[in-house]
Amino acid sequence: MIRSITRPKPEEEIDRLLEGLGRIFIIGCGTCTTLTRTGGEPEVKAMRSTLTGKGKMVTGDVVLPVACDNLTAEALKEYGDQIRLSDALLIMSCAFGAQTIARQGKKTVIPAVDTLFIGKETAVGLFDEICTQCGTCIIGETGGICPVTSCHKGMVNGPCGGTKNGKCEIDTNKDCVWTLIYNRLKDLGRLDSMRKYQKPRNHRAEPMPGKWTLAGR
User: Fold this and answer.
1) Where in the chain are the domains?
2) How many helices (H) and strands (E) does the chain have?
3) 62, 79 in Cβ contact below 8 A?
4) Number of C-beta neighbours around residue 153 at 10 A
5) Which of these, 74, 194, 202, 215, has the minimum number of CB atoms within 10 Å of its CB?
6) How far is C-alpha 23 from the geometric centre of its chain's CA atoms?
7) Is this structure's pTM higher than 0.85?
8) CATH 3.40.50.11860 fits 2-116, yes or no
């Protein structure tokens, strides 16, 4: 299951962002932040209790099925009166969801979580980054394994001189991704791919802000 991985903002940061805003409507998300336990039903309920304890008036709350969905505006209509009474919307979803909601009206939007990366749950409660969305994907030449996200140094040519017994020098409990790539390419009979020099990463391969259509740019 692929999700936007988030973590709660520090309480003091949320307090600062909500300064001068007395009436708050809280919005969570039933997908990504429910999975990471940063914006599902329990977290929204806890946030409501926290804000009430600090003297804020919570006009209402909802956990949307998918906060970044095109149907977000329709889903929020049911809570129109409670939203209108609020000074701000506290969003407990990924950044995409927060921006989607922000476009639906003229209310101040305050994010309650930070979006870290696109990740996959590899064990209960453990999420590994699988893609940085760098715009220069080379996994076709690395056996389907991404060195940008899996190498602590983000090396696109490897291994580095620090790898030992197939382990990473920065985290000795972690397999060196370039050893994994080597073994994968060897099994596929494609070791020649490792001889191709990859140019240094262009950290802005995609123009800012990014835009793409089926017809091109």
Assistant:
1) 2-116, 132-195
2) 8, 7
3) yes
4) 15
5) 215
6) 28
7) no
8) yes
